[in-house]
């Protein structure tokens, strides 16, 4: 488990990173650096969005698949790396 | 020969009768005395316990710490490099630098939506002394009275409410008019229940009206008791109490008293739960500044404005008639140096810190909803001062107008914007993010009638209500750039707040 913590620390130390959440395939957060309320909110909402994005990509071209999802908002950017078992959600404020 | 003979009578006892007499014997018996002993048993101590479920505001988060998470390490190894690459590239990218998206039509100008008047109040020439939006953001409540009255008056006045979301809105006729025996000097709507309004009167009474009752809207009132104010009440505010969901009413009057009332619904009365008195002798001395301010001859510090801090439930700020600006604490235990007048609660001295005094009554204080240390204050000197709670002199002073400033309020959506209602009739809106110190926008009333009060609508942050001395209330819709938050505003506010002198 120490390797997992090391990796998270490395990602957290990048410029402007505000938080990291790892969500399992059912949408339940397994690791987080944010407080509980925000984590639950992000996990629930983003899981649905990633599922929708993935099905959109595959509907257009069944041979294609979603590799990365980025949501840019006024205040920050949310990056999601999806996988079979887990999603990695990183929230970054690039202008920090 | 014949002689009289007397013979004794012979009696024959009746055998039968004797045999019928029952033999009689008497015997008695007695139980022995009953042994009795007395003993008492009493439970030594008792305790009561009650439980109550509380509403769960959010779901619980269970992180599976001890569980083996299969594949997590591999997943992270796979994913780490691409993610870090994207993060680094993002931090350096200029792709979105000046990119703005139009989700709605941008209003470029400030426009007047409604112009509300109450005819009977206007005929009598009453001024609007206070406006307040209710918690749903659709009803505006206006209090009428006089601001230039120095004398005791028995003029009837009223509190009017208009529901702006109704289609049948009539700007000339209020939806609900509550008649009040004296001028209303302060008004505040309940932050969670849309029907309750608290008001303070010129006579010193504090009332709560329930607008959902048709018969008699007065829910509770203090009446004229030993506990209540004797002088006009200038501010009322709803304060969250210890128990979640309950609110008490804090009232401050010009006799230097700040009183905290709780509403007792069963008996329909106010119960005084805490009382604070401000006395010149007990004011803290501001460190560093000159001690030229001495306690003047008056025996009380009349309170003209009060502000609660949304960040710290123990702090409240008080502005006085003499220009003093104080930070006070609800939990202070020092008793006040005031002769007791038969109150039910002992008076306490709440003042903790004195800011740099102003030259004239402080009419308005408001704490910033975006930064825990900042607040603005304004008074009759026409300046708006931006203070930090950490130091006595102000951080910034802005010239708002050449006459009095009656009320000042921070915008609920933009951290750097605040609006000021001035005695010249204009409402000046300042944006601290701009380089120049001139107002970002000015709302003119058309007439020279002073604007006495204003209130931002927290649900619809683009609405601003302004009350004037001609008895009219204007509802203004603000332009887009005054209501939409920019990306770096919080950090700019943080920078301003950190200019605290060392």
From TrEMBL, chain A:
Top-rank lineage group of the source organism: Eukaryota
Transmembrane segments: none
One GO term of the biological process aspect: microtubule-based movement
A GO cellular component entry from the record: cytoplasm
Boundaries of every Roadblock/LAMTOR2 domain copy: 4-92
Coiled-coil region(s): none
SMART domains documented for this protein: Robl_LC7
Principal location: cytoplasm
Gene Ontology molecular function: dynein intermediate chain binding
Similarity annotation: Belongs to the GAMAD family.
PANTHER family in alphabetical order: DYNEIN LIGHT CHAIN ROADBLOCK
Protein name in the entry: Dynein light chain roadblock
Naturally occurring in which organism (per UniProt): Eleginops maclovinus
UniProtKB/TrEMBL annotation, chain B:
One GO cellular component term: ciliary plasm
Cytoplasm listed as a keyword: yes
Organism: Champsocephalus gunnari (Mackerel icefish)
InterPro entries per UniProt: Dynein_IC (IPR050687), WD40/YVTN_repeat-like_dom_sf (IPR015943), WD40_repeat_dom_sf (IPR036322), WD40_rpt (IPR001680)
GO BP terms, alphabetized: intraciliary transport
Subcellular location: Cytoplasm
Chain segments annotated as transmembrane: none
Gene Ontology molecular function, alphabetical: dynein heavy chain binding; dynein light chain binding
Predominant subcellular localization, coarse grouping: cytoplasm
Pfam families reported for this sequence: WD40
Protein name stated in the entry: WD repeat-containing protein 34
Key words, A-Z: Cytoplasm, Repeat, WD repeat
Xref: SUPFAM superfamilies: WD40 repeat-like (SSF50978)
């Amino acid at each position: 488990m120490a390797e997992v913590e090391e990796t998270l620390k490395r990602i957290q130390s990048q410029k402007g990173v505000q938080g990291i959440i790892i969500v399992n395939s059912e949408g339940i957060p397994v690791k987080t650096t944010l407080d509980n309320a925000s984590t639950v909110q992000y996990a629930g909402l983003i899981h649905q969005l990633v599922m929708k994005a993935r099905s959109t990509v595959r509907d257009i071209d069944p041979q294609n698949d979603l590799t990365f999802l980025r949501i840019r908002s006024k205040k920050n950017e949310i990056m999601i790396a999806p996988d079979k078992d887990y999603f990695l959600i990183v929230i970054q404020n690039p202008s920090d | 020969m014949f002689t009289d003979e007397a013979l004794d009578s012979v009696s024959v006892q009746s055998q039968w009768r004797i045999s019928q007499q029952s033999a009689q014997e008497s015997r008695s018996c007695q139980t022995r005395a009953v042994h009795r002993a007395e003993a008492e048993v009493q439970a030594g101590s008792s305790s009561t316990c009650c439980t109550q479920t509380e509403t769960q505001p959010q779901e619980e988060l269970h992180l599976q710490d001890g569980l083996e998470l299969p594949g997590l390490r591999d997943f992270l190894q796979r994913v780490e490099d691409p993610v870090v690459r994207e993060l680094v590239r993002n931090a350096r990218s200029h792709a979105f630098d000046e990119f703005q998206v139009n989700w709605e039509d941008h209003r470029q100008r400030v426009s007047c939506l409604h112009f509300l008047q109450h005819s009977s109040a206007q005929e009598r020439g009453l001024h609007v002394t206070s406006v307040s939006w209710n918690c749903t953001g659709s009803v505006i409540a206006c209090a009428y009275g006089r601001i230039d009255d120095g004398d005791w008056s028995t003029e009837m006045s009223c509190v009017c409410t208009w529901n702006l979301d109704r289609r049948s809105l009539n700007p000339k006729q209020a939806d609900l008019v509550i008649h009040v025996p004296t001028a209303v000097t302060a008004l505040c709507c309940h932050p969670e229940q849309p029907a309750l309004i608290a008001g303070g009167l010129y006579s010193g009474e504090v009332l709560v009206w329930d607008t959902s009752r048709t018969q008699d809207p007065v829910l509770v009132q203090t009446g004229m008791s030993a506990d209540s104010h004797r002088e006009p009440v200038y501010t009322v505010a709803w304060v969250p109490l210890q128990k979640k969901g309950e609110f008490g009413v804090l009232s401050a009057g010009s006799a230097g008293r700040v009183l905290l009332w709780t509403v007792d619904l069963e008996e329909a009365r106010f119960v005084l739960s805490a009382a604070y008195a401000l006395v010149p002798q007990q004011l803290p001395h501001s460190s560093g500044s000159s001690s030229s301010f001495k306690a003047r001859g008056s025996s009380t510090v009349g309170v003209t404005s009060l502000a609660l801090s949304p960040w710290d439930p123990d702090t409240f700020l008080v502005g006085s008639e003499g220009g003093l600006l104080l930070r006070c604490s609800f939990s202070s235990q020092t008793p006040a140096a005031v002769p007791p007048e038969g109150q039910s609660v002992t008076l306490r001295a709440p003042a903790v810190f004195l800011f740099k005094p102003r030259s004239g009554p402080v009419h308005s204080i408001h704490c910033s909803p975006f930064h825990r240390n900042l607040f603005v204050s304004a008074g009759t000197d026409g300046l708006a001062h931006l203070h930090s709670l950490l130091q006595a002199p102000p951080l910034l002073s802005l010239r708002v107008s050449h006459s009095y400033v009656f009320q000042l309020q921070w915008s609920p959506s933009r951290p750097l914007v605040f609006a000021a209602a001035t005695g010249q009739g204009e409402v000046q809106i300042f944006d601290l993010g701009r380089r120049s110190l001139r107002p970002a926008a000015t709302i003119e009333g058309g007439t020279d009638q002073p604007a006495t009060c204003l209130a931002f609508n927290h649900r619809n942050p683009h609405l601003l209500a302004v009350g004037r001395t001609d008895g009219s209330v204007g509802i203004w819709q603000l332009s887009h750039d005054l209501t939409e938050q920019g990306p770096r505003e919080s950090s700019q506010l943080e920078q301003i707040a950190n200019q605290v002198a060392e």
